[in-house]
Every structure is written in structure tokens, then in C-alpha cells.
User: Which sequence fits this backbone?
């Protein structure tokens, strides 16, 4: 099969450690469908590609190129970059979309450097005009909107996880196997991988539609349970300020802000968070912000749509029971 | 062992940061320029290794000439020498040009290990370490939350939402580190005085065989820029015993609960 669509957008799929298609793929394929025809690439260990390819087709991939190689679990970044270079050579895409994840950034960096392609990072949206593909960025914590494009050739784009809401229509499964030549580039060895068993049924922070965050105002790791209770009442993910993380109330993976996760949920509830500029940089693009803080001068109120000056330990339990009352 | 730490001057995230709406470039005068904290942590990894082992630590940066004072802080912290690539032609350089220029400077300086932060606070692209590794043809070990440096190898752990990966590679290599690594040391008076006598090399693009105006290489260009109107404050009430109920009503009204 060499009859590729005229406007192919190459999407690099990511797999979870258990061999499922990563959640980021639906957004990437959705973004690709806005600017062209999504052609996906899956790079997996032997026997793992069929399931991924089927899920990718259901998420809108017109065609799925698959590369099965054991190197992908033994060596970091390079085997995937090799596969991507081979796929791009046959597809000749207008753009290459990659998740702005740890692995995605490495592969995007290697691929763009190897092929001397223009690279756009942390895009929150994509569009196309007469001259080609345009990446949209939200920079300096959402203070500016910036567009970027390639002077010529394909634009390689890392797309912020959870930023694109568009979804592509399901396509019939069409798989094509590639057997790329290894580049022989030096790579780090993956010595082991220890999976975190997901015990939480709560939504993931990245890409969550609702987030409840706690700050130093919670006072202790035990009291932080209040944040969890409200989050569960609202079906929200749990976030935290850097102060709460530094104080050891909650692991760093929950940190929202300049140096943590950037979120753009429909609802962001800030409990006992002062709203230092570094925290606001990670959440001020939320559609609606609610804040509770006992300090009336806390900067968080400058960005809150609804703010309550009060004690989180009286306001929040009342809020939880009021919401529970409504559900009855 | 020669360790090069890549550092970056960024606008202080404790203040307002501005982009110039005419040029699209960072408005360096609008905010306090500081050494990016994650780069300081990267330097700490190198310095603490050098404290206990035979190692030469070089700080390197690509930045306008006036950033020299910021880069010098790396010398005050304990690096043995500094290399700054400063060239007006590199203003507004995209990631590709930045990576090619830094890779050339790294090659010219010579290295066993390159250490960077995982993400800068201004661009937050996080792609440069892998780009450097590709151009230098060495392994990348990125986003490490723990690092062990040996005489001829480097290894470390990388934490993600899915789990922890153990990585290792023979030197030379490029690594990037996360905030999980220790805070950087403060430069002391002795260090600040000593920094004035340490070698500080300034290179232009031409010294590295780089032509910033080379239009035959694809580049990423900014095509539009707009400032978002600042978010305005909404309703603020003081809790009079019904604050929780009021929030519940607000959420229901806005179909958020």
C-alpha cells in the first residue's frame, strides 16, 4: 500500500505499560483530523500492535503503520525515533503530532534534529491556512497566545496532553507493517520498569475537566483529606500548590503550576491556596475558578470567579453536604 | 571527567513576564533576569559529583551578551569555567538553531557528560536534551529524578504517572534532571570573588561554524502573537456561616456540580 492521503498528518501513538493505547492518542488523532488525514504510527513490542491499531482506528486513524520491535522496551527513545523517521519517509506528512509527554518530547527532539525539521512545542491547538499547518501555543502561564509555523517542510509538534477536545470519527482498521532499519544511534538502556498499580479511581490531573487543589492552608497531610472528599464529591482530580507539596501533604505528581502540571479544566477549586504567580501560571486558563481562603488579600481572589473569604474547615464541609443534599 | 551544565537566563517567575508584541521576543527589560532554577539544580548535580570525585564542571549558555552576569553566578556556585554563545544573529533562534549551536559549542569544549534541566520555566519545551543527544550521537537519559554518575557510565531513575524506569548508559551522554533533585547551593563570598578570576569564554555563531541566517534549513517561526486580557476577579464574599452553601449554589447555577 503506497496510496497515502494527499494531506497526511502523522500521529505517533503512545502505549501504556499494559499495552493499551494511551489516553493522549484520541486528542492527537482529533487534532490531526482538523488539519488533514490522520495516519498513525504504533511502535510496540512483538505481538502488541494489533490491539493498539484497532483502538487507534476507532479513535480516527485512517491508517495505522506498525513497527514491532523488542528494542522499544530495551532502549530509550532511539528505536521510536528510528521508526518515526521511516514512517515519515514513506508518508511525507504535512505535520507530525506527538504527545508532549516525557517520551514524546525525547522522540520529537531526536526526530526533528535528525531530519532538520521545524519543531513546535507544547501546542494547545492546531489549524491550517493556505500556507500550511499552524500550531497554537499558550505561553507564560497562559498570558499570551502565540502561533507558529514551519518556514518549509513538515512541522513537528508536541501537543499538550488534554488540551485538544476535538475527536475524530472512527475509521475501519487498516494496518500496514513497517520494518525500519535501525539508525545505530547510541541509546540509553532501559534496565527495568516498575509499574505503579493504579489504585485510585479518581481522574488523572492532566486533562481533567474538574480539579480540586489544596494549599498550605490545609495545615497537615491528615487535613488534606478534605481536598480529597470535595474532589470525590465533584468527580474531580486532585491538585496541590507547591507549598503543599513541599510541606509533604501530597506527592509532587499533584503539583499544579509553573513547575508542575498545567491544567485548563472547566472548574478549578483552590482551597487554602494563596495563589502565588507560579501557581496561577498552571491554572489560570481554567474556565471557572472558585477559591476559599481565610486571607481576604490572597492573590488567588484576583483570578477567582467566585471567592469565599473564610475557613476551609467550615466552608468546605458545608459545601460537601450541600452538594450531597442536592444529589438525593 | 568533564561535565558541561547547560544553563539559561529566564525572566523571574516570581514577577510578571512579558513578551514584546512587536518582535515576539521575550521582553528582557520587563522582569528580573535570573538563572533558571532547574539549571541551578542541574549544576548542583555536577558540583556535588565534583566535590567527591575528579571532575571539571563547565557552565554553558546561549544568551545575549548582557546575560553574562547571570551566567557568572554558575561560576560563583563552583563551576570551573563558563562558555557563553552570544551573537545578535541568534536572537529569536528556534529550537533547531539553538540545538545546533549548543551542540557545536559542546563539541568544541569537549565533554563526558552534559547535564540540563528537564524543562525551562519560560519555554517549557523540554526537547533540547534529546536534540543535543541526537546531534552529538550520544544516549539521552531524560527527566531523571535520581542520578548516579560513575567513572565511565551514568544511570538514574525516571518517574512518570505510569511507574519508575531505571536507565543507564556508557559515557559520553546527555542527561536532564527534574525538580526532585536537591536544591542548589548558594554562592558564598569566597565563591563570588573567585568567580571573577575564572575563565569565561564568549563565542560567536561564526566561531562554531553556524550561520544563523541559513534559510536552507527549515525553522519554526512565530506567525502571530496576542496578549490575553488579564482574568478579572468575579464575586468575592466573606463567609457568614453560609459560604459553603453559596459555593454549591454557584456551582449548580453554572452547571458545574
Assistant:
Amino acid at each position: 500500500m503506497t496510496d497515502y492521503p494527499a494531506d497526511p498528518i502523522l500521529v505517533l501513538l503512545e502505549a501504556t505499560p499494559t499495552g493499551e493505547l494511551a489516553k493522549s492518542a484520541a486528542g492527537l488523532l482529533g487534532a490531526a483530523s482538523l488539519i488533514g488525514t490522520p495516519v498513525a504510527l504504533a511502535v510496540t513490542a512483538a505481538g502488541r500492535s494489533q490491539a493498539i491499531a484497532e483502538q487507534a482506528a476507532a479513535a480516527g486513524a485512517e491508517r495505522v503503520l506498525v513497527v514491532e520491535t523488542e528494542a522499544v522496551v530495551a532502549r530509550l527513545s532511539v528505536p521510536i525515533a528510528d521508526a518515526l523517521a521511516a514512517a515519515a519517509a514513506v508518508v511525507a506528512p504535512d505535520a507530525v503530532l506527538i504527545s508532549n509527554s516525557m517520551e514524546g518530547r525525547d522522540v520529537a527532539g531526536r526526530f526533528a534534529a535528525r531530519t532538520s525539521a521545524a519543531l513546535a512545542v507544547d501546542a494547545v491547538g492546531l489549524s491550517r491556512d493556505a500556507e500550511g499547518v499552524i500550531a497554537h501555543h499558550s505561553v507564560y502561564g497562559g498570558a499570551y497566545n502565540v502561533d507558529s509555523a514551519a518556514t518549509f517542510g513538515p512541522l513537528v509538534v508536541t501537543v499538550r496532553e488534554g488540551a485538544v477536545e476535538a475527536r475524530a470519527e472512527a475509521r475501519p482498521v487498516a494496518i500496514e507493517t513497517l520494518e525500519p532499519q535501525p539508525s545505530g544511534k547510541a541509546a540509553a538502556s532501559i534496565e527495568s520498569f516498575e509499574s505503579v498499580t493504579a489504585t485510585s479511581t479518581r481522574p488523572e490531573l492532566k486533562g481533567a475537566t474538574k480539579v480540586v487543589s489544596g494549599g498550605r492552608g490545609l495545615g497537615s497531610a491528615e487535613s488534606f483529606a478534605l481536598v480529597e472528599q470535595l474532589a470525590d464529591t465533584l468527580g474531580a482530580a486532585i491538585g496541590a500548590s507547591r507549598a503543599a507539596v513541599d510541606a509533604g501533604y501530597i506527592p509532587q505528581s499533584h503539583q499544579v503550576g509553573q513547575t508542575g502540571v498545567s491544567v485548563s479544566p472547566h472548574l478549578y477549586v483552590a482551597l487554602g491556596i494563596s495563589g502565588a504567580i507560579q501557581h496561577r501560571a498552571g491554572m489560570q486558563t481554567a474556565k471557572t475558578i472558585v477559591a476559599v481562603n481565610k486571607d481576604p488579600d490572597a492573590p488567588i481572589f484576583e483570578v477567582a470567579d467566585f471567592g469565599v473569604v473564610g475557613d476551609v474547615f467550615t466552608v468546605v464541609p458545608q459545601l460537601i453536604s450541600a452538594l450531597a443534599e442536592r444529589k438525593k | 571527567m568533564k561535565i558541561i551544565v547547560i544553563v539559561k537566563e529566564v525572566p523571574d517567575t516570581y514577577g510578571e513576564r512579558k513578551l514584546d508584541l512587536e518582535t515576539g521576543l521575550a521582553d528582557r527589560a520587563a522582569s528580573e533576569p535570573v538563572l533558571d532554577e532547574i539549571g541551578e539544580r542541574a549544576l548542583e548535580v555536577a558540583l556535588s559529583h565534583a566535590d567527591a570525585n575528579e571532575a571539571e564542571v563547565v557552565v554553558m549558555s546561549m544568551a545575549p551578551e548582557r546575560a553574562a552576569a547571570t551566567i557568572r553566578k554558575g561560576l560563583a556556585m563552583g563551576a570551573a569555567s563558563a562558555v557563553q554563545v552570544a551573537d545578535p544573529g541568534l536572537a529569536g533562534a528556534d529550537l533547531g538553531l539553538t540545538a545546533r549551536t549548543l551542540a557545536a559549542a559542546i563539541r568544541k569544549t569537549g565533554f563526558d557528560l552534559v547535564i540540563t534541566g528537564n524543562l525551562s520555566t519560560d519555554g517549557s519545551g523540554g526537547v533540547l536534551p534529546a536534540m543535543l543527544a541526537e546531534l552529538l550521537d550520544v544516549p539521552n537519559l531524560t527527566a531523571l529524578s535520581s542520578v548516579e554518575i560513575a567513572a565511565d557510565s551514568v544511570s538514574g531513575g525516571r518517574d512518570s504517572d505510569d511507574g519508575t524506569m531505571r536507565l543507564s548508559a556508557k559515557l559520553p551522554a546527555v542527561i536532564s534532571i527534574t525538580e526532585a533533585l536537591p536544591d542548589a547551593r548558594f554562592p558564598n563570598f569566597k565563591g563570588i570573588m573567585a568567580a571573577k578570576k575564572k575563565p569565561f569564554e564568549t563565542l560567536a555563531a561564526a566561531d562554531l561554524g553556524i550561520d544563523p541566517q541559513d534559510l536552507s534549513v527549515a525553522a519554526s517561526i512565530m506567525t502571530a502573537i496576542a496578549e490575553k486580557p488579564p482574568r478579572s476577579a468575579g464575586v468575592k464574599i466573606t463567609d457568614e456561616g453560609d459560604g459553603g452553601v453559596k459555593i454549591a449554589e454557584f456551582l449548580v447555577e453554572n452547571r458545574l456540580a
